[in-house]
Specification:
- The structure holds two protein chains of two kinds.
- Helices cover 86% and strands 0% of the residues of chain A.
- Chain A is mostly helical.
- Chain A has one domain (2-220).
- In chain A, helix 1 packs across helix 5 (94-124), helix 2 runs antiparallel to helix 3 (51-81) and helix 6 packs parallel to helix 8 (193-220).
- The longest helix of chain A has 31 residues, at 51-81.
- Chain B has helices at residues 3-25, 38-66, 69-101, 109-130, 135-148, 151-161, 178-210, 214-223.
- Chain B has a single domain (3-221), classed as Four Helix Bundle (Hemerythrin (Met), subunit A) (Up-down Bundle), CATH 1.20.120.
- Chain B is mostly helical.
- Chain B is globular and about 65 Å long.
- Chain B has eight helices and no strands.
- Classes of the chains: A mainly alpha, B mainly alpha.
- Chains A and B meet through helix 6, helix 7 and helix 8 of A and helix 4 and helix 5 of B.
Chain lengths: 221, 232
């Protein structure tokens, strides 16, 4: 067990170091989410009155598409260098390698969220409170587990850019349902925040367990 | 007629009988009028779709455990048939919703989760088409089928978990008069029989597409290959 964690941390550290040296993905994602906010501004005619009702939707839209790009890239670099096969040939368990890749991708997406949330506050005037940050981070865990699993799958498939959103988005919907409600409540809509957050945690546990069971079959192939 | 054709004919005959029960035997709803008759096939096809996706789940799990090719073919057959029944359920629901709710579609928890179910299994079939045929396609599809099944209980319990306009369970709550209940149970049995026959035929097609079947091999062994020299 401890070796699994060590390997996962090593793989995550490798991915983060590669990102730190090239600085490609996080700046691109940050620019992408800011662009999404700009486009939302023109699409919705945002003013101080309607901003709190529109902002949660824009937040999840931007986050979902940034997540797709981030998780799609997770295995793209490995595929381009054909280094995934080499990693899988080591005695390290596929689950540990997958956990490391997922952890690295999650942290990169959190980096992108660190731009998205303040930008949302800046442009839309919505509060940047602890409940909103907690919701987004909790949703990120489950979304990353699912996103990385399907990214690992489509990395070996034709038309991967097409297939990743088709497989991932329907399964992300539970997170958007619960997270969307929690953020709406945190931005002033009526409803119960705690219930939505509890649902989010349930989905996190469910999908992290399912993903860790399935990872072996996807990576082994 | 081979036995698949016989089974197909029997299933169609059962569906005609069910139609007879729906239109001639079941009483007209006092509030909604004749449009309520959609109920019988709408709910039956939803249950048939659940069953088909359970077949996908089981087939996928067995395949991941033992690499059993028959289980993979069964899962694939279940996905195709389940998608057909989900489509029937959605379309009939929309036709029912227009006169009663005033719109074909509302973003209600059950409608939305059923639509997501449809998209998930459409994705399942796309994975089968795009992945490398053989072990990779079977494995990836099995994983999608197992994850996708998470949405089935969500669809089923959506009417209890969230506030929705879609009516809740009427069968277990004993809310139907006996003639309606009898018609519903008969229609459901016929629909499940139809789904079973469709899965069996689809499974047969998958088996035929997968390569020479044992019977054909036996025939070849008995009479010789068609390519061989004719016996004089």
């Amino acid at each position: 067990m401890s070796s699994t964690i060590t390997i996962a941390l090593a793989v995550a550290r490798k991915d983060l170091r590669a990102e730190w040296r090239t600085r490609e993905l996080v700046p691109a994602l940050a620019q992408f989410v800011v662009l999404a906010l700009v486009i939302a501004n023109f699409g919705f005619q945002i003013d101080a009155r309607n901003a709190p009702t529109i902002a949660p939707g824009v937040l999840w839209m931007a986050l979902v598409f940034a997540g797709l790009v981030a998780f799609g890239r997770t295995f793209a670099a490995e595929r381009e260098q054909a280094s995934l096969e080499a990693m899988l040939m080591t005695p390290a368990s596929p689950v540990a390698i997958f956990a490391g890749k997922a952890l690295g991708a999650t942290l990169l997406l959190v980096g992108c969220e660190a731009v998205l949330l303040p930008a949302l506050t800046l442009f839309f005037g919505t509060p940047l409170s602890f409940p909103i940050i907690a919701t987004v981070l909790l949703a990120t865990i489950g979304m990353a587990a699912l996103g990385c699993l399907f990214a690992a799958m489509v990395a070996r498939v034709r038309a991967r850019e097409l297939l990743l959103p088709l497989l991932t988005l329907p399964l992300w919907i539970p997170f958007i349902v619960a997270g969307g409600q929690a953020v709406q409540v945190a931005m002033g809509a009526s409803g119960t925040y705690d219930q939505a957050l509890a649902l989010l945690i349930d989905f996190d546990i469910l999908f992290v367990v399912l993903t860790s069971l399935a990872a072996r079959f996807v990576l082994d192939e | 007629m081979n036995r698949y054709e016989k089974a197909a004919a029997a299933a169609v005959a059962l569906m005609v009988l069910a139609a007879g029960a729906i239109f001639l035997f079941a009483p007209t709803d006092a509030l909604q009028g004749p449009v309520q008759r959609i109920f019988y096939l709408h709910v039956s096809s939803a249950i048939a779709a659940y069953g088909c996706f359970a077949v996908v789940l089981l087939g996928g799990a067995i395949y991941l455990r033992s690499e059993n090719l028959a289980a993979d073919r069964l899962a694939r057959a279940g996905a195709v048939v389940g998608l057909v029944f989900t489509t029937v359920c959605l379309v009939m629901g929309m036709l029912w919703a227009k006169p009663i709710w005033g719109a074909f579609w509302t973003w209600d928890a059950r409608l939305t989760s059923t639509l997501v179910l449809w998209i998930i299994y459409a994705g399942y079939l796309l994975v089968r088409r795009l992945a490398e045929p053989g072990r990779q396609a079977a494995r990836f599809a099995a994983v999608v089928g197992i994850f996708g099944f998470v949405d089935v209980p969500v669809v089923h319990f959506s009417v209890t978990w969230w506030r929705t306009v879609h009516p809740g369970p009427v069968i277990v709550n004993d809310a139907l008069p006996p003639e309606m209940l009898a018609t519903f149970l008969f229609t459901m049995a016929c629909t499940l029989a139809l789904a079973t026959v469709m899965i069996a035929i689809r499974y047969r097609l998958e088996t035929l597409a997968a390569g020479p079947v044992p019977e054909a091999a036996k025939v070849v062994a008995a009479v010789g290959s068609p390519d061989a020299e004719p016996v004089r």
